[in-house]
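Problem: given the chain below (280 residues), write out its structure.
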Amino acid sequence: MRVYIYITLGDVGLGQSSWGYSYFSYSSFRNALVASAADANDTTTIADSVPIVDPYGNDSVGIVDPLQRALGLSTTPCLASTGCYDGTITISNTAPLYFRTGEISSNQYDFFTVAEHETYEILGTASYCCGSSGTVFPTDYFRYHSDGTRSFAFGTNDPCSSSDSTNACFSIDGMHMLQQYNNLNNDEDTGDWVYNCARPLVQDYAICSGTAGVDISPGAEILVLDVVGYTLVPLSPLEFYPVNPWRVVDTRSFGGITGAFGPPFITGGTARDFPIPAGS
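Solution.
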């Protein structure tokens, strides 16, 4: 399955995502999870966090477009060639961005971390049970207090290890608290993880400057994708095909290449374009 995302620059704080979703009955959502269950985490989810009766009592779940396809609730892909996308990511056109070349400065933000953060939300990992729209999303079924009861409202950001009944933590069984949600109603990506610049994750609601190489973690973040309905599959082993060395471009007069990929050589301070896909 492919997900189509359009990335652009704009007047935003650092990064922003927009995406579409449709409402499905709770029973349709749960039945789709049951049908696609593929591992122990899925089994735990169905038994503990997504029971037969909707814990929120509204019998309606907002499911983003790519997750609909993953769950078999929608079979028509959104083809990029038609100008239709699963979501749009807007990156700040003024923030100092770092592209993982050289050293990151203390005021720069990792472009790839920002893009991954917003991609993660387009895939359907946003948690907005307590928002003004009243929409319940799949991840909302994994919001718990540290005492094992569900978290249905905004509250505090006290640690999951506390006995605070107004915090919110991610758990698939309601007992083992795996990650803190940002549970403050402060318009700072409510429902993302509480930020921690010492050990950052891409879904932290505040992305830390001067920190590079933060990617979607194999722990809590990949687990969220798994339990909301995506099927995790192992990557195919890579294969190595040795080929003889070959210069695509050689502008030296004695290099033996002519035409668009040969001389004249490039003098300092000038530029030249090469039609790489047309090369031999």
